[in-house]
Amino acid sequence: MKKIFSYFLSIAIIFTCITLTSCSKSADSSIDNLTETSALRIHYIDVGQGDAILIQVNHKNFLIDSGPSDSQSKILGYLKNLHINKFDYILATHPHEDHIGNMTAIIKKYDITTFLAPKVTTNTSTFKNMLLALKNKNMHINAIKAGSKVINLGENITVEVLSPNNSSYEELNNYSPMIKLTYGSRSFLFVGDAQKEVEQEVLSKNYDVKADVLKVGHHGSSTSTSNEFLKKVNPSIAVISVGANNSYKHPNKSVIDRLKESSIKIYRTDNDGNIIIDCDGKNIKVTTK
Questions:
Q1: Which of 18, 41, 96, 179 is most buried, taking the most CB atoms under 10 A from its CB?
Q2: Residue span of the structural domain in which 228 resides
Q3: For residue 47, what is the domain's CATH number?
Q4: Beta bridge partners of 60
């Protein structure tokens, strides 16, 4: 009983403050002609069946998720090759192992200015170890929800948090913050594993979800990327973070068909490896390696 009390006390404490490298193979998008110096670089890191996205802009590093624990050598190796020693922001979109499996290792290894997560807990060892690693560095979690103004990536770039809009969901996936990043005339939408319920919530609030690049929800599962939501986003490029020959059979054929019917260029980490997007505010270039 004391252990259970101590665990949830730690959670309460940790939530108290709510508040460039060259690449080998280039695959230009339908909106390219990129200048040599791009202000924004987004890495969709191949971590198998999971998510890990690194956003670099204005000399800031923003990591969204960390992939499953069995990909630890991949993500740590990737970050090492980029010579990163500090993260300005880290976001754990929701406490599933395929998204926070390497958070403990990353928290221990790197300096972190702000750690973000939705206000939800779970009883897994992965989640508990993440909390303990934060506690050992005297860090707290900044809770994130729709309308949060906790992410500042510097000049000429805006970050809008569109979800979660409710305090309670049955599915942990639906706590995933939906984040829209805009640089110049180009926008990028990151949705974690948010499912159709959240997509509908966001649409019902008339949030502007239009984006040039969509990180497809829930690894291309049929639970996400509804037809109505996809039409509102209306992307030119879709990125799916997914493991090769995964047991869930992600991405779902219906989602792939929907993307193809809309003439959206699809990139997949299982087929393309690491996917890197550069943007100068007007043009977008996609490189895979």
A1: 179
A2: 2-18+29-288
A3: 3.60.15.10
A4: 57
